[in-house]
UniProtKB/TrEMBL annotation:
GO terms for molecular function: coenzyme F420 binding; oxidoreductase activity. This is F420H(2)-dependent quinone reductase. It catalyses: oxidized coenzyme F420-(gamma-L-Glu)(n) + a quinol + H(+) = reduced coenzyme F420-(gamma-L-Glu)(n) + a quinone. Belongs to the F420H(2)-dependent quinone reductase family. InterPro entries: F420H2_quin_Rdtase, Split_barrel_FMN-bd. PANTHER family: F420H(2)-DEPENDENT QUINONE REDUCTASE RV1261C. GO terms for cellular component: plasma membrane. It comes from Nocardia wallacei.
């Protein structure tokens, strides 16, 4: 079942990218989705991840849940190594600076609520599946 879900996610990302963002922003479960474009910290190659997001003022908040896996997603290490990256929201490309936050951050609980609500409670479920604290990554537009 997990393999099927991964293929669906990859298909969604492919449609989002190939359509230039015309299709994909709210395709999967109706959740708002952005494309996070990073550079691999080891390979130096461009990487793209489709992620559900919440908005917090002008910032975008994504969750490094990796479906509740004991290991965080690879993109988290990439944004920690190179925080200046790009997102695509629909057809708009936005240069951003990424900042990983954890439960000790004073805004974490509030942002967690925003992200979890957008994802219909799935992030709270994912947190019960792993012992690691799930990072929230704040993507702040650069001017």
């Amino acid at each position: 079942m997990a393999g099927l879900f991964v293929r669906v996610l990859r298909g969604h990302q492919w449609v989002y990218e190939k359509s230039g963002g015309v299709v994909g922003h709210r395709l999967l479960f109706g959740n708002p989705t952005l494309l996070l474009r990073t550079v691999g910290r080891k390979t130096g190659q461009a990487r793209t991840s489709a992620l559900t997001y919440a908005q917090d003022g002008t910032d975008y908040v994504v969750t490094a849940s990796n479906g509740g896996s004991p290991r965080p997603p690879g993109w988290l290490a990439n944004v920690k190594a190179r925080p200046d990256c790009e997102i695509q929201v629909g057809r708009r490309r936005i240069p951003v600076t990424a900042r990983a936050t954890y439960p000790d951050d004073p805004d974490y609980a509030r942002r967690w609520q925003l992200a979890d609500k957008v994802n219909k409670g799935r992030y709270t479920q994912y947190q019960t599946m792993t012992e690691r604290p799930i990072a929230l990554v704040v993507l702040s537009p650069r001017t």
